[in-house]
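ok trying again, last paste got cut off:
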Amino acid sequence: MVWTVLNDCDDKTTLPNYLKDLYSREPQQVDSLLSTLINPYDTKNALDVEKCLWVICGGQKPEDFTRIIKSNDRSVICGLVWDANFIAYRCKTCGITPCMSLCAECFENGDHEGHDFNMFKSGAGGACDCGDVEVMKPCGFCSRHGPKSAKNFREIPDDVTLMVNLVVPKLIDFLLYKLEDATRDKPNKMDRGDEEVAKLLLQLCEMGDITRNVVAKGMLQVRKNSLSESKVLFKGEASKQSIHKYSVIRRQSSTENSQPPSLPDSAIQNISDGEGPPLQSVADSILSLPGPSKDCDLPYLGYEEEQKTVLETLLDLLIELKFPQYLVTLVLSMLQETDYKQQFMEAFCSRYAKIANLLTHRFEPDEDQKLCNRLVHASVQLFSNENLTFKMVQNNNLLSIIVSALSDLISRTLIKVDHDTEDNVNSKSLFVVNCNHDIISHHRYWPVVSDFHNLLSHSKIATHFLGEAALIRRWMGILTHFTGMNKNIRHLIVHIPYESVVYQYAYSTEIEASSHIMTNLLSVCTSPSESDHIRLVLSECVRALRSWFRMIQVQIVKPFLEPLNGEEFTPSGPIPRHEITFHLPLHRYLAGFISQAINYCGMTLEEVLPSEEVLWCVMEHVLRIQVGIGEILSGLWVRNGYSLRSQEEFYLQGQYCNQCVDLDIFLLQVCVMALDSDLLLTTLLQRYKLDSWFKFGDFASSTQPADTDVQQALVESMLNLILQLVYQRMYMGLSEERMVHLEVVTKLTMGDFTHSQLTDNLPEKPGISELTELFDEVLSKVSDYKQPTNESGQLTQGIYALKPDLWKSEFQPLHVMLRGSYKRGYQLAMDKYKGWYQSQNKTKVQGLWPPFRTPLALNPQCKPLYRILHSRTLHAMLFTVLYKAMRETETVNDNMIYLTFYLIDLCVDAPEDITTPVLERGSLKPDITVAEQEDGTVPQAIVKCILFLQEHRHLPTLYKGKAVEQRVQELCRKLISSPHTFIIKPDQYTLQDVTEALLLMCNSRLQPPLFARLYNAAKQLSLTTGIGTAMYDKKTHMYHIQQVLEQLPPHRYKMINLLIYYLSTLVKEELATLDQICAVYVPEGVDPTAFSSIIRCYDWIFRVRKRHSGTLESMFDIKYKSDRIVKNAYQCVMGTSLVQCMYEIRRSWLRLISLKVLVPATLTPHIMVRLLRNSQILCSLVVSLCVVHRIRVSAISKILDKLSERDQNNAKLLRSLERADASTPDRSTSPCSTSEAKRKRAKERQAKLLQQFASKQRIFEAQMEAENPISFVEEETNEAKPTYSCIICSIDSVNTEMRPIATFVLCQPASLLLHCTAPDTERAIMDDRFEDIPTLHSTLHDHYTTLKMLFSSGSTWQGIGQRAQPGLHVQSCCHYLHVECYKTYSDSQRSRSTDPLHNPLKGKELSCPTCRRLSNTVLPLPPEPFFKPYSPTELKIPVSPATQIPLPFTHSCLDKSYQSSNPINCLGCSSHKLHNKIKQVIQQAPIDLVNATILKATKTPYYTSVEQFVNSLEDYYKKYVEQKTLSQQDILILSLHTTLQCELIERNNNLTTDLECSRKYCTGRLISVLATQSNMLIECHSSNDLLLELIHMLNSGGPGVGAPSKQPAGGPKLPLVLRSRPGEAFQPSSDGAESDEAETDDEEEEVEDIDSSEEWAKIVTVFVIVVRLLFTLQSMRALHSVVAKFSHDEQLAWNYKKNSSECDDFQALLGVTCGELSRLGIHATVGEMDITSYVWSLQSIEANLQALCVPLLREAVLLGHHMYEKPLPASTPGSSELAHLAAWLDLVPSSSHSSSSLTTAKVLNLPRDVLLKFSCDLVSQLPLPRDMPHSPLTEPLMPLVLNWGRPRLLTLPRLYGKLYLHYRHVKCKVCRGVPHDPALCLVCGQLVCVRSQCCQWLNTGECTKHAQKCGAGTAIYLVIMSSTVVIIRGERVYLWGSVYLDQHDEEDIDLKRGKPLYLSQTRYNCLNQQWISHSFDHTLKRWGWHQQQF
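nice, full thing came through this time. structure:
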């Protein structure tokens, strides 16, 4: 019965009404019917969702029901849910939480004027927060949402929502059952219907709060009967019971302080599969954390109760199905309901572990990212409410759950990393994050990290986190695995096999998972009340660091450390030099919280500093990064590839520098404040491996070490680091405003940047919330804005430049050094500073020093930082650099000198009252230089043996006898057991015994052996030590050995150094030979030559220096007595002092200034000191660096003055030096008397060289002339001809037929004319009338369709002319070359093609060698000019009819025409004779030869080049244009017409203005080629008789001459009145097969022969007559077109006026025309008339006539200009365009040029009877419906006379957001679907699919296909999703840029920044101009090949 009822209700309204009526009587029956209708068990009948919707609506239409519900919507919050790629808005001004977002509708309805907002394309989905007071401020709410928007709504009757309450629960049950089917692998989604039901429920939620509330209540109901068991993380009852039991035991054990048990194996086996080492389970992790166990234990483990709500069941199914998007959208659409949101959050938090576990599964490509997006889509909506989220943290232990989930994720990515344990076999392993793991490389950790970040963005939750010690400890444990990841090991011999991008994952992981969390935590530690939290974090951080140190075996001495968990630290060596990692988050957490404590919380430095031993260890790792950067910049890591450079750039770049390098610098500053400065500087020197550089004396080796440049770079890096430690204040109390000011100025000193580049490089300092608020204010103060320019078509953006006056005071060179990676930024800043300095001082300088800047004020807690400036070690270091600058000039560069003086200046000004912080320290100091142990005391025993052998090497018993093994073993045992106390006695042990003991310990007790790593490198060196080997190879291999040695631990390096020194001493003193030594020391299996080569090159490898008498060994021997540099400055060291060094350098530069000499840029200042001792060397130099030296002298003088003021001893020393210098005669004066003579000799040598070059060129030209005698003779006979310089061979020659000259041209199909519209008509793309606006193409197409149905197909084309199809545009760069040179050049360019496979043109396109403009052929120049330049005085011109048509015209002949009464008979002959002459001229004209096909047999090179050019035109035209049947002559004529029209368009139809690129047009040369092509043809027939018919009609009336005598086949011939615009009278035929053959009368008229030159002189006026005839026809057609717009009454009125006596000729013509058209019924109807139809006057009629006739005159003037080289007319004030154009063409006397009253009728100047009769004849030719009864014509057909405007691109909306939203849902006309990546054609407005397979046809993309159809291969697209303009030109594609810019005139490609974009009219005009001028090819440079796939 139920099915009967349902089947009978076929009507959609019947069933709902029946159910409503039945419910009032039998509710149970209704439930039964609904259960049958919505039956999840029915597998035969699919659910009818549409019927369910009608049932819900209660019989109403769904649209009406929706309108009722929305009209009574009481929703306070918008809550609109969207998915990916949705455009939304985010307002930082209105937002409370950083993740707030608004839909477009709410944003536009809100008031956000002046706010900081951005538009973004959602990547993961979201929901609108409009109206939510917890997320955003009320000021940003729209008018429809928010608490104040609630209104009084009327109550909806219960019967309206009755069916909603009944049907929704059924639908929910249906949905759950189908989803459970999906989890049981039931039929696929298309058969289940769950998605359709979910969308129906979502539709109900979007209707309003009434229906949404019903759905939400249904979700919160307890589900009584589960249809299937829900799956959980731990499957099986045994697992559930085991975990439950384990949790109970665990809680009991925690209360009893007993050791918790381990998780049962049965439960561990059921954990979902994952990767990584087996670690503590998730259950163990969560149970170890504090919090309410009842809320966090069992739900986290997946234990689920029997009773669950529908929402909980649905969430479980969501997890099982991996969060499908349609279900995510459904569950989020009800979050406006408070109860629903709270229960959903509780269910979500209790299942968070299961959700996070999904991220560990394996996925298909891109599926993991989709899952991450959907997870974030859900969680971000839940955690944005601070109060509700904090409630979840307190009651549900949410922080513990998320931290444990993140820990579980990270644990699956760990990889074992062994520390370098070459000398210690007892080291432990470290587990760090493997950045190649899928969880890291695919960013699967991002959802959990994002949730953690969102939680800590709430201040309450962040404070709560800082108060939980267990949470912090757990978090520090996670950071331990990030510390030390992505370790780089230096490659020495072989380059790295491939460049890895792992470093990108490592940086993104640290920034997202560590730095952002630290930023949130530091942002709440801003008051003294947070001191306890900071102490807790610091203690846990130090605890984690100690644990990490223990794992990596860092060097810490035992007495310093407290035992931790029964373990002790094991000593080891310092960090190996060949290893580096940039990731130390634990160290940076320590630095960040120390900075926050002393700057914001009022804590002292002693309170926050860790123990001294921890600081030493921390310093080692942070220092290793700084040393590594210096090594990278010096080229030591070059074999590791570009990845190391990229890591260094990431580390230093502005966006992350505050979280990386700045924190590391601050941590080093903390070490400087707390540790011993001398020991720290010694450590610094050793880590840079600069011990040998700071030794004195010359190198013992005869050749310099190969690493001199490397050593200089390292010294410079070390000095820079010391300066940075003293100068930087980033984490020492620097204010936010000052920090932003410093960063902006620093960035601007390195260049001019856009607004986004500056904001992107603005560091995000941890602990500071928002810096962007200060940014714009600071930027406006320190910079000048530069507007974007589009010069030469190159697009620029708005940029900011530093104000010039700030260079003097704000340029901070040290901060630029820190921020400028690779020194590139620093060099750019110095170049700009140099430019500013030169502009200020009006002089050129070289080697400019940057200014010294005083450091900013310090936080009082950080004053101990100045202790390093009072270090004696630093003073000795500075003295050594200056001493070497004076003595060893090749080892010191200019930057080192600058940094040294800068440090001296800081040392002098350093404060003296400094207190040292008291640290917890032991009784011993760590030995940084040498490790204490290495497998016992073996190293010390080896050193003792070597020293014994060195001391007793002169004993005669060396190598005599044999060692006793028993004594050797006993000696080894004693040495190892007590190396400090045991003494080797010569009377007890022989040298052989000690040697054997030494070898035994080196090869057996040390693992690996002492020389193991050197043998391979030494073997390569041994191969290059032979005689004749290049010194470069020797140095290379010795340098390699140096690098291997420096990678060894310090104690190994010391042992090898001592042993090799001892053996080399034996060889030098001839105590032993190399063979003897190798026989003893080299083990078996090793090449002895390798070992001998090391001994032989000992001095070079170990950089041994020779000490001079009176000098010290190294810097460490300098013993300064004071800690103040002012006291040590005058202390004498090696015969000099620091003051003397500074004075000597200053004196050297003063001498250079006095000498007035020029020092080359390669001559550094320190070399000048040595050169000055021999003044003869500087005699030949010229002055150039005087200004620079004065600057440096001034800087040194200020330092010396300070030293003198601070101490009298310095003043006395300076005075004594000045007196001694004054008493010494100056020998440096340079005799410059010979300078003039030398300059004269140089000029003589230059002149001699020029003479030699000229002589060689003359000889070469003579040889070329001898090889081509014909050309030579022609050149001799044509001396008056112009010469052209060939850009290939650079030879000047005249143009001849045998050696023609050509020019590069670019021929490209152009359809520009087809897109013209009416004047002043804009095609707005978003206008509703857009598609109704006619274009020339659409108008011609409609007109042609009508003509084709009425007339013969052969004559139909004459009705639309040449504009109906694309043409060829030809342009040139006007650079000349020989045709034969072009062939050679093109062949050479094709042979050099680098990528022929990906170049579809295969070398057909070349670039001009001079201007690099693109070209595809050459246009030959005619040897003889076809047209003589205009000469007004010339009357008789001898003309050859076969070569020159048309002829030059003169004013003299034309003036006679105005004296005659009949201007048509102005030549003095009869009308019949004139007709015959004109016919003969036209038939002989080359421009009308359209049917000629036969070529001459004989050809010269010129004619051959013309033929090749015409063939090229044909190839390019037929490649892109659909019309394939045109002949070569047609294409040539069409090219001429297109080029002429394009020039007019580019001139904006104004001939009185100059065109910048007018020289590129080659119209005159095209006409010459056309004439040449005509001369090459024998047979020709004229197919165009328009002029002949026109002449006949004007003279005698009736049918024109040449008109057919009978009706042609296919229909009547097109009448004269309907033919195309007269300016296109010479047009090509469209189809040779269809065109009518020229028919002539049977009786041919005789044509007079024109023999005499006088007759031809009369015909010179034929050009003027042709123009006059065409103008007459055009004016008549224009008059008919204007009169047709009159109303019928107005036509009758004007017809009546024709009989008036006051009526002139024009009024009579107007009246006759009105009468004729009125008689035919041609007039405007009421619907067609506008306001102008009722006010037609003579002035308005004349204005319309001129608008339609003047374009013809423009074309005639421009054509005459190119043919006769007559200058274009100049504009005259007070004259109209018609006047000066007609005067230029001699259509009116010259006196009329200045008249502004010239009318069209005066230009015609015809008798009244002729005009009236001609007009009536034309009207009589109009086709009428009554004359063509079988045609579809319903009204008389008028000629197509329109005034087309200049073509331009579509008009775009000002706001890009409107354009984006409008086209987001527009469908493609080809595939009928919404494009995934739509693009808009800016020419025609069609929407196409980009990079999509849906619209491809024959492997051709839609964009490429549309380009051929719309623009003959050229198209301009605006890609909607990215705001980018893409240009297609033929086979190439170009990313042009964007025409939409933000308020800072900057692009936003792909909407990455999301700032509002506005149309840049300047850019759009530039794009439009490039399109009109066809300049894409030479303006745009970086083209790509689209391969027909775009």
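cool. The first strand starts at residue 81 and ends at 82. The chain has a mean pLDDT of 75.
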